[in-house]
Every structure is written in C-alpha cells, then in structure tokens.
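Cross-posted from the bioinformatics board.
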Amino acid sequence: MIDITGVLEPYAKTPTGEKISLHKQLVERLQRAILSGRLPSGVVLSSSRTLASELGISRNTVVLAYEHLAAEGYVIADQQGTRVAKLNLQSEVLNSDIETKEKPFTLANRWETFSDVSSQSLPTAALLAPGLPSLTDFPLALWRRSLERAVKQLYRHSLASKDPLGEQSLRKAIAVHLQISRGVQCDAEQVVITEGAQQALELCVKLMTNPDDTIWIEDPCYNGAKSVLDIETFKIIPIPVDKEGISVPHDLWLTNVPKLVFTSPAHQYPTGSVLSVSRRLELLDQARKAGSWIIEDDYDGDFRHLGSPIASMQGLINNSPVIYIGSFSKTMYPTLRIGFMVLPKQIMNQAAPVLSKLLRSSNQIQQTALADFMTSGEFGRHLGRMRRIYRERQKVLKTALVQHFKQNWILGGSAGMHLTLKLPVSIDDKYIARKAQELGINVHALSTFYSKAQSNHSGLVIGYGNTHKDKIPEAVDILSKLIKFKEYKF
Amino acid sequence: MIDITGVLEPYAKTPTGEKISLHKQLVERLQRAILSGRLPSGVVLSSSRTLASELGISRNTVVLAYEHLAAEGYVIADQQGTRVAKLNLQSEVLNSDIETKEKPFTLANRWETFSDVSSQSLPTAALLAPGLPSLTDFPLALWRRSLERAVKQLYRHSLASKDPLGEQSLRKAIAVHLQISRGVQCDAEQVVITEGAQQALELCVKLMTNPDDTIWIEDPCYNGAKSVLDIETFKIIPIPVDKEGISVPHDLWLTNVPKLVFTSPAHQYPTGSVLSVSRRLELLDQARKAGSWIIEDDYDGDFRHLGSPIASMQGLINNSPVIYIGSFSKTMYPTLRIGFMVLPKQIMNQAAPVLSKLLRSSNQIQQTALADFMTSGEFGRHLGRMRRIYRERQKVLKTALVQHFKQNWILGGSAGMHLTLKLPVSIDDKYIARKAQELGINVHALSTFYSKAQSNHSGLVIGYGNTHKDKIPEAVDILSKLIKFKEYKF
C-alpha cells in the first residue's frame, strides 16, 4: 500500500465555474493518475481511511470513489486491498493528441457526387427567388396564438404515446381541406403527416420500390424530386413535358413499365403546364393496368390564379392508383416543414405499420397548432389574402417582363408563385443566374431543371412570392440588361 | 351548338355545407357531363350568353368556366366555338369502381421480413415497462412555460431559414451539459440535433457506410440498433457482452475490420454491464488503427445510481474515433423525440453539408424550449429529482425480486431505469412475457435481444421508470407466480 496523494493532480477549477462534487473530483484525479501511468498497474492504493485523512475529506467519499473506479475497471478490489488494474497503457492511444493522418475520414461512396446545392437556408433578402412565399404577409401573431393553444393542449398522456402517422386533428383538417378545395377523395385515415413534401416523396420510394426499379420523372423536373432519387440505384426515365404536361410516348408503357411516375399535374414545375384531362385519364388507365403508382405532387395547387383550382388527378376517378402529396412550406412558411401524403385506401393496411416505423413526427405542437389554424378558418382566410397578393405581384412581373421580352417567352402563370422566362438557347442561363445572384436577384437557370437529353433549353425561373410589387420592375430591368448585354456578345 | 342544360346534373349540396362558388359548381357539372359521355367529344357547347341566360347566372361566370375547362383540356375553344375535346372514355378507367384485383399492392422487398414489433405507442398504463420514464413526475407546467417562451421567440426571420443541424441555442446547451456531466470533449459546432437517438444511428450509417460493410453490434443488443441495420445489406457481427461489457475476440480486428462498432459503454442494454476502462482503451486503440468508428450510445448515462456518472468513452482520449449519441426520450419524455450526436471535429467539414441535406429539423419550437429548459437550470433540477425517484423504485424492485429469486439472477442497476432478471434456460421467457403482458405487466423477454448464436439465454428485462413504488411488489409477485408455475411444468 502506498501513499498516493503525491501523484494526484491538484484540484482543477472548471472553466464554467460549475460546482463539481468532491466525489467526482476525487474519481477524476485518480483516473488521470492511473491513465497517465503515475499510478502503475498492480499498485495497491492507500486504504480509504488513510486517504480520507490525508485529503481531509470524509472516508465515505473515498469508499464511494474506489467503488466507482472498480465499477469502471480502473482498480480491482480484493482481500489484498484496492489495486490498480492492468491497462494497455503502452499503446499510443492515450498520448497521441494528433489526428490519425494515415486513414483520413471519407464519407460513404453514395455521397461522392453530392454537392451542396440545395441549401436549406433560403435567401430571404434576395429578390425574385422562386419557392418563397411572402414572409412579411404571414400572419405571425395569429399563428403564435394557435401555437399557444397547442402548448396548452400538450397533456400528460401525450408525453409517451402519439400517432406516428400524425396528429389526428391535423389529419382530419387536411382531409376536409383536400376534399373541398382539391377534389381529393380521402378520409383522415389515409392522410399521413410528413416533414415536407420531400419526406413524402422519400417515403413513397422507400415503401414501394426495389433497387433497379424504373421510375419516370418529368423533364424538366423539380430538383427536390431528383435529389430523392439520386442516392439510390433506380432506372430513371425523364419524360418530356409540353404545354399539356407530361407527354408519355405510348410504347414506353410496354418497354419500360414504371414502378412510380412523378408528376406535378396542377402546375408543372418549372414550365407551369397544366396536365390536360385526356392525358390524366390516359395516365390513370395505363398505370392501373401496369400496376404502377402515380405520385401527384400538388405543387402550387392552392394558389390557382385563373378561375377556381384545378381538381386533383387523385379524385378524377374512384380508387385511383395515385399518391397525392402536398406541403405547407408555401402556403404557410418553409421552416414549418409540414407536408403530407394521401395514400390509396387499398394500401393503407400494409403501409401503416412500415410508416409507423419510418416516421417520427417530432413536431406535435406545430401539428396541433396547424390543425387549429385550419379548423378556425384562419388558414382559409390567409390563403385568400395571399392569392390576391400573388395575383397582383404576378401582374406586375408580367407587365415588367413584356416591356423587355417577347410575350411568348413567358410561360406559366395559371397558378403558384413563379413565371418562367424562355430565352434563346444561345444565352447561357446559368451565367445570367450567377450574375443576377451577385446583384441580389435569386432567379434560377431553367436549364438546370432539364435532363442531359434536353440541353437545348435556356431561361429563367422567376419567383414573385416574396418580392414586393414595388421592387419587381427594377429587378426585371436589371435582368433584362444582363440578358441583353450577353446577347450582344453572341 | 346544342342546348347543354339538359345533360347537366342538378346542383349538389356538399356534405359539409361548405360554400362553393357558382363558378366552381358550373365547372364541375360540365366536367361530369363530359366525363360521363353525356356531352360527347366534338359537341359544340351553348354560347356563354345562351347558357348564362338559361341557367340564370352571369355571363362572366360561364366565360370563366369555359376558360377553366379549356385550360384543363376538357374543351377546345376556336372560331367554331367551344367544343368538347376528344377524350379516351372508352377505357374502363372511369367506370371501374372496383379495385384492380389482378395486381395487388405489395410493399418493396425490403419490408418482407418486417414485423411491427416496435410500436411507437408505448403502453403507458402497463407496469414495469422498460424504457419509459416516470410520466407523472414530469414537470409539465414548467415545460409548458419553456414552450411558451419558445413560441414568443418564433420571429419572422426564422420563417424561412434555420440551421438544419439544429437550433444554435440547443446545440450549445447540450455541449455544456455533456462537457460537465459526461466528460465529453466537444463544442456546440460538433453537436447535431436529431429526432431521437434512433435517427442519429441511422445518420451515422447513411453517412459512413457502404453496402456490404462490416458492422459490429453488441450481443445482446438494443433492438433499435438492430432495426436500423435490418433494411440494409451489411455484414453484421454480434459481439458477446460479459460483465465488463463488449468482449471483442482479438483476431476479429484482423479478420473482420468493422466500419462501425455500436456500443453502449455506460450501461449496456439490456445486461447493465459497464464497459471496463481497459476494454475502452483497447477498443479506442484498435479502432483508431483500423480506421473504424465507435458509436457510443450513452444509454442511461444521465441516470447513474452508484457514485457519479461514468465519464464517456468519447472524452477518454483526445480526438477519439467516437461518435457520441444521446437522447432526451428518457430524461424528458418519449414523444419529444429529440436526440443528438457529437461528431469528431475532423469529420464535421465533410459531414455538415450531407447532414444539412438529410436533416429537416421540423421542431424548432421544442428545440428552443429545451434549450431554455436546460440553461434555466430546470433540466438539471429535473434530473436530480428523477434520479432520487428511480433509485427508490430500483431499491423497491430489488427487494421484491430478492424475495422470490436468487440474488445473482439480478443484473444491472448501476444506472438507468431497468433491472434484468436472468432465468434458467429451461424457462421460455417469451411465454412469460406474453402472459405477463396479458396481465398488464409489460416486461420484455431477454432472449429477444440476443443473436441466434446465443440462444441459451432466458430472462426478463424489468423497467421501474414509470411504475410507482407501491405497485412494484405486487407486480413482481405476479411475475414470480408466472415463472414458478412454468418451472413446475418442466
């Protein structure tokens, strides 16, 4: 038995000034002495009585510290007393402060081609950014009130159990909203709450597809859909989009039967096409015969500017082979990140247990608040207000564009929060978009939405959701100068 | 041009009594007439003036309805007037109310072996359920106050952008807590907020592993870890656990280098072993040499019952090859579903953009509230209160068990909210667990945590977190009767 007080480091103060118990301090000083080799393997520690009197602390503190060290394997307690255990201290592991240089960290292979394009931080100050709703017009005070009511509704029984498919009140509110405003045939049981439309897409893919399955996407296509598919091994077939929406070559149903077809029939992104009813019927018919599933991403469905909203494809026929997807990122605000999907009745039984495993639904309070916001009528009033604001902004944007560009260069406008400006192919739209961004104008290059097969496209996707109408003409003026300057060079 | 009023259905009332505009009603009546074939392809519709006067509505409403139908492709408007478009109505798609019987829905192959064991709805009323904290002792009123403060902190600028890795305030609060109470070496930048420990595990796997990589797990192992790995194609090697924790055969480092090693060193689940310091050093040393990563799931780390908490493996050496994972499901409540991981500094640069893509972090308000709860000191006080409650409950449970079973059948107890009762292998623990569940006692069968290679285990995992001490002895009494009854039969 040796006097070990000499090898213990002095008490150290914590940087934060937190109180640390005598017990914990003693344990840590002993651990450091052992790990540093100052108390070598086999050494018998002072008896608890001795150490306690030497350190001027209670014997019980020392006894507990020794017990703690024994539990962790630093010491072994037996008839001979408390001995330091045999530890592998000759290894460099304890002394090397250096990072292991030989084996640098590499991410999994699937991230090799990953580039951080879709940053989640949207540039709120930028002008003409697509995808952003008007943030200054969001009724924050009313929304806070719904949130406060939701906090009051957090009851003790909901601390341990909840429906993984989403808060019942929200599933019901969404079902009612979709039935009335989008003609979707569903009840609350078919509605699954997700973290944005993106997660809904991911879940469809996980739920339904096997590796090497064929998936059809629109060409051009919403980049979010592409990024879901990027990290898996599917056969992706881009299908061209024209004025009537996605245009499927008829023999493709024979040669390349898809497991999933991604579509945005109400307002195709970014072209703004509306899928015609004859193509809808054809798509539904073929999909049903082939056992394929259509994913209807109801992009901008709530912001129809011409007449009443176009009804969903999901509700066009009974028992349609359609999964309807939507989100509140544009009707409410992006960081809310609440979306949903409506699954066909016939697949709910099989899908529900799997979804219960995959979904976590950590945002009870936001979900309850959104249900409150919808059922109290605030959501409907908010949509009406925003529709008027967006119509006005779109009108101002169109007027400004027509002053600089040909009328038939302007696509879309029947719904949503963006217009697409087609440009001559000789103009490098990526260059224009980059230059515009440097000037605080965050339009997107149209060509980035197309597959490689369709490289003969140039244009700009111009959002008007979060840009005040007074700022639109000047921003368009700058865009036109950038484009014309570029044009002269060609 | 024909008079079309005769083929239109009468106005229908909506079941919900919602107001539907005349415009929308007219559009839908015309659509139904076309889809049903009552207005066949090629038919020229009444002029807008005629139809308006016949229906007694404004002409403008009819003009807009015709425009809407043209936009959707139901009609074609040209010099000859408005004609019904050619639609593929001979297909059965419109008339078939029947579900497609030939091609029944099947989930993706990866779900074939999936069984719905880990239901998210925890049986809050059940006795002795492992994994549940005391719900009646959760300070709900204080927590609501933190939530209310978080609602007030939802500012307009946070509607569109946030840090996908988690609210800065929470990342900071967790870093401080881990440094002080768990000896973790980290700063806020290394902390990533997840939806529970489960998502943190999933992210590690996604981030770091390639198909066919080798992964070591503990045997027995927490089922959540297994379920993360289930759906991928890894080489899973179960490593036996003894009283000193995971016991790696030395040559395994040569023959089967792991990409990841899943461990729960502070309190192994379900055996309750504490990983000894010599094994910790060995594991760290070998992992660093092999370029492997250790996942330290700090299961129950906050509820140490003997002495002060055992420090984390992550902080044992500098620049350790460890990803530290934790959750608030047990220290707060399960449906909060906030977890976190601490990534090594050297991998943050590469990992952050990928994580930004994978994380959605939809629970801003809960995250801000938790940061408030922690920095205000409420979390620390809550942990202290709960530790005292759990210690008392554990003592009562041990006392009750000892009356019926041998002392050395009882494993664990140094931390957490459960004890494990070993049983003779002749007893079918799954049968006992099933029978107990029928009687409202939700203990888990120990054998279900083991790999196939270790089928010679029987026992019960008994939680005391959410069972009042007065109810424990009677529940144990029932368990002992179930077990003894069974024993007699063998």
